[in-house]
């Protein structure tokens, strides 16, 4: 079951981006300079930006024209992933079906997802009463519970310190990948990418290039990646 | 290219509200236009009313602006205890029922008022508050504080580095920094005040009158209430609409958004003198605002025993109308803000240009053939008040709705929230503060309204402002002052109650 993006073209004013990629289960890192269109690509897959051409399909079924909620896609944004006035349990529960009134069975599933990300006993708290790392975990619990096959991470852990961020990436690896989910992750940090990504897509000069295995691309970086990484790679 | 970020916003309630507002403003205008007696035309008295309306509004706006400049300047550059209290005081006239302020002004400037008593004590002739200068005085009382706040904002928006730079260069602060600021702030402030003064029926009703001091709105009221000349009332209403429309078009092109008075608590540090003069100006301005209010309290307390059951009944009616109007108005504003788009923004400002007397005349003409208008006085007042307060409430909640959409629109959309869950469980809880403030504003404005109600009400539908007006007309000044005290107390309490209600439990940012 693969995510197939075929000849997709995105135009916003002067900006344009073309994408032709195939993603398998596992983590695909999306790298490239600022303003190259990494977030735009994810927004298009999530359904927030209408493409001017091309198709997107998962498991052979096209979803180019579906609404964001109908797509087989969950997304974590850079911030505002939790509603501040709702409890953690309510926030996580929204992953099930966008409702706040849940059945007993659904409530159990919510409680389990909260335990799975290590937030036992915090279900009744509001996000403000949690640390940054715990908030990220809560958002991830919702993604787990939603169980959609494609997960888009638009740098949701960027505000965390290095150790917390590593923890979150490991949690993604541990909890999402065994279920066969396809994770697309925007990243600026080659260490993150090496830590968790199976393959890398490069976004540069108006093109999203086909994904290459992570080891391969860092051993022999293409020019665009070399220019972007400088000495870091 | 981007899709509507928040496709889950419900759109139909905003559509209904837009239809209602259009019907009440433009629809009533059609009713007026159909009924207007064009053949009779406009008489000499009518043209005099037009001249008086425009002239008093021009002079009121001009005086308000001229007086506001030194007050704002003094407040901008002095830091002293009680400064923030004075700035809060400047906001009070907006919520103060017009008729209360008029009574307060009467007890200072009227016959047997403080000023005339002082004048006659030293053998000078008395001044009369009725007529042109009384109307202007009342308008200045209401609008000078408003303009002062506008200008104060402009003053404090000048970065303090520029004042330091000017001081170190020895450059003239006035020409370099202050004049450009005034030039950008004053025209819009002037036009806003001008527009307000064109449609302030209650002031004209209480202080104007007679062939020399009748506004068009007052003439409408007289044609409808006393002469029952519907055709003439309709023609005058058309005329009033025309005047307002022209003024509104000017005002729109010049108005910028106001920033809501944030950050007015710091003073501009400056290096030019004039401490004494600033102190005198601030004291005079505070006295001008406080004396009339103080007189209401003093006389009102004395008059409390004179409050009859009828007055209390009127107060209850007013509270009922004000609270329902506030609920309606915030609901309208929320629906429009969620709908968004060009229609919502046009509908959101349209009522500013509407005169409640024109709307009232139109409604009167529509309902009159079917039912006794007095029987509908309270529901109609409630509805018209809700629509007239809409622009202010929308200004309070519009930006908050936009922020919720920007922060959480994509999240809500991707989670597949229904319009119901999105509106009730996400947007509303995050809007408590501006909604509470908006509802408080709408309630206070409706509480003090003396417009449409005067056209419709009989004795059995009297609201508190109307009852108070009738007491004044009967020269029962003690009882009127007590009613005024009651009216002020209820208005500010309602505002406080709603505003507080919005703040409680809103800490989960």
Task: Describe the 3D structure.
The complex is a heterodimer of chains A (233) and B (509). With 233 residues, chain A is α/β, with parallel strands linked by helices. Chain A is 35% helix and 24% strand. Chain A is built from eight helices and eleven strands. In chain A, strands 1, 2, 3, 4, 5, 6, 7, 8, 9, 10 and 11 form an eleven-stranded mixed sheet that branches. The longest helix of chain A is centred in the middle third of the chain and has 15 residues. The radius of gyration of chain A is 18 Å and the shape is globular. The two termini of chain A are 32 Å apart. The model of chain A has no long low-confidence stretch (mean pLDDT 91). Chain B folds into two domains: 237 residues, MetI-like fold, CATH 1.10.3720.10; 266 residues, MetI-like fold (Orthogonal Bundle). Chain B is 76% helix and 0% strand. Chain B is built from 21 helices and no strands. The N terminus of chain B is likely disordered. Classes of the chains: A alpha/beta (233), B mainly alpha (509). Chains A and B meet through strand 1, strand 6 and helix 2 of A and helix 16 and helix 17 of B.
What is the C-level CATH assignment of the largest domain in chain B? Mainly Alpha
Helix content of chain B: over 70%
**Which sequence of SSEs, written as H and E, runs from N to C of chain B?**
HHHHHHHHHHHHHHHHHHHHH
Radius of gyration of chain B: 24 Å
End-to-end Cα distance of chain B, whole Å, is: 32 Å
Topology of chain A as a string of helices (H) and strands (E):
EEEHEEEHHHEHEHEEEHH
Low-confidence stretches of chain B: 1-5, 256-262
CATH A-level architecture of the largest domain in chain A? 3-Layer(aba) Sandwich
The shape of chain A is globular
Biggest sheet architecture of chain A: 11 strands, mixed
Tell me the distance between the termini of chain A.
Answer: 32 Å
Q: What is the mean predicted local confidence, pLDDT of chain B? A: 87
Name of the CATH architecture of the largest domain in chain B: Orthogonal Bundle
Mean of pLDDT of chain A: 91
Total discrete domains of chain A? 2
CATH fold node name of the largest domain in chain A? Rossmann fold
What is the count of structural domains of chain B? 2
